[in-house]
Amino acid sequence: MIDPNDFKSVPTPVFNIGYGDYGEGLSFPIFLLHGFPYEVISFDGVVQPLVEAGYRVLVPYLRGYGSTTFIDPDAPGNGRTGCYWSGCYGLCRCSGNKPVCNGWL
């Protein structure tokens, strides 16, 4: 179900975040966040059951992966958790959602 060629992109203050968006736009959103060394495709078997259960599923690329790119090529890149979450927060706000909680798989 996940096809990175169909991913959308949203600009945040630091990144252009590439992400897959599945399900109805007004449904309760679930963000599936991959970590190193995995990629968005690792959620391929999870997206469809969540959509069928009535959720909107957003699957962003981690910074440095896929179509997520820095807006400023000279911006410092690192793998610190705070930097990762700031990108996720930006995607959440830009997609019209308010962050409530998070979890890590």
Structure, described:
- With 105 residues, the chain is α+β, with helices and mostly antiparallel strands.
- The protein has one domain: Alpha/Beta hydrolase fold, catalytic domain (Rossmann fold, 3-Layer(aba) Sandwich).
- 22% of the residues lie in helices and 21% in strands.
- The chain contains 2 helices and 5 strands; from the N terminus they run βββαββα.
- It has helices at residues 44-52, 81-94; strands spanning 8-11, 15-22, 29-31, 56-60, 69-70.
- Strands 1, 2, 3, 4 and 5 form a 5-stranded mixed beta sheet that branches.
- The mean pLDDT is 80.
Nutshell version of this structure?
The protein has 105 residues and is of the alpha+beta class. The chain has a single domain, classed as Rossmann fold (3-Layer(aba) Sandwich).
Map the helices and strands.
Layout: E1 8-11, E2 15-22, E3 29-31, H1 44-52, E4 56-60, E5 69-70, H2 81-94
Gyration radius over CA: 13 Å
- How many structural domains? 1
CATH architecture: 3-Layer(aba) Sandwich
Arithmetic mean pLDDT:
80
CATH class: Alpha Beta
Share of residues in strands: 15-25%
Helix content: 10-25%
Low-confidence stretches: none
Number of DSSP helical runs: 2
Shape: globular
CATH superfamily: Alpha/Beta hydrolase fold, catalytic domain
Key descriptive features of the protein:
about 100 residues; alpha+beta; Rossmann fold; five-stranded mixed β-sheet; 5 strands
